[in-house]
Amino acid sequence: MATQVEQHIKVDTEGGVGWIRFNRPDKMNAIGAVTRTQLGEAIKQAERDDAIRVVVLTGSGRAFCSGADVTEMAEGAGMRTPEDVGNVLRNEYMPMLTRLRTMPKPVIAAMNGPAVGIGASYALACDIRIATPEAYLLEAFINIGLAERLGVINRMVPAEQLDEVVRELATHLASQPRGAIAAAKRAVNHALDSTFEQALEFESYLQEAQAASPEFAEGVANFLARRASKK
Prior knowledge:
This protein is of the alpha/beta class. It folds into two domains: 9-174, 2-enoyl-CoA Hydratase, Chain A, domain 1, CATH 3.90.226; 178-230. The chain is 48% helix and 14% strand. A six-stranded mixed beta sheet has the order 1-2-3-4-6-8, with helices on both faces. The chain has a two-stranded parallel ribbon with strand order 5-7. The longest helix is centred in the middle third of the chain and has 21 residues, at 82-102. The chain is globular and about 70 Å long. 31% of the residues are buried.
């Protein structure tokens, strides 16, 4: 009889928002081989599903994600050599982080607790981070701390309000024009590696492309209709 695979990642969809939840609370949502496989598939499906307009990444229990499952590594069930570590990073983690960063949909990290190691990388790959007071970022090579004052955390909320606040923001973003949201995300990411002049040129290109879209025409028509109704 086949052994049932544990559900390390839970996926729920509501109102155009796809919730991807680390589901190993007993392990502080540490990531092992099974988790990596399930998470990679969940992120890929969220990007491809046109019904999902916003993605939320969060954790179960007290942690967002405590990083790699060191116990699994010690037992030889995953990364046994430095080469194994490099291969997993390049072939599994990097594609997931890149997909979160580049997918044409807003990605929100609902940080219900600590994000450590690769868990911090997942949080930082998201476009928006909303955190509880119990949340912090910790890398193996540097303790970033909460970093709210640096702008790493976009908003701090009480733990009992986290899901409600994230849901409200995600639902609002999901109601906005898909193309405009995707263009805004591309512009922000492009600006990180551009000169001021290059960023302005790329913005001009995106605005020109958006001006030719049906969403733009609809937005202009709606604006004119609202203005006419106020006269």
